Every structure is written in C-alpha cells, then in structure tokens.
Fold this sequence. Notes:
46% of the residues lie in helices and 15% in strands. By secondary structure, the protein is of the alpha+beta class. Strands 1-2 form a two-stranded antiparallel ribbon. The model has no long low-confidence stretch (mean pLDDT 85).
Amino acid sequence: MEYLAALPWNPFITSVIDAHTDPLNTYLMLEFAPCGSLFDIRHKLGKLSIDDAKFYFTNLVLAIEFLHSHG
C-alpha cells in the first residue's frame, strides 16, 4: 500500500491517502472523485458512444502507462 501512497499526483489515478488493516479487511482512504467511477458513468449513460469509449480507454491507458513508468 505504501507504494501507491508514495506515487506523485496524476490526474488519471485516484490517490491513496492512507490505509488501515484489521484481521479481516483492508481499508483504503482514497482521494475524493466527484464524478464517480467508470462503472457509475457507464450505468448512467447506458451504452457509450464510440467517442466516449475512446476517451475513457485513453485515460485507462495513460493511467497504466504512469503506473508502469513508476515500477
């Protein structure tokens, strides 16, 4: 968890602020994302247009590229 919290800020990644564990669970305190998740957006809009799908796919690729560049 400390690896995710140590990453520099990136607009495509929701930052991990803190993490706590107990014997059964891990709790993550994440940066506030007012727009919700991709699942929420997909559920609200129904079927995504090609342009919307390209936009969200590009954001995912940029997020994965960022994570890959930071090991």
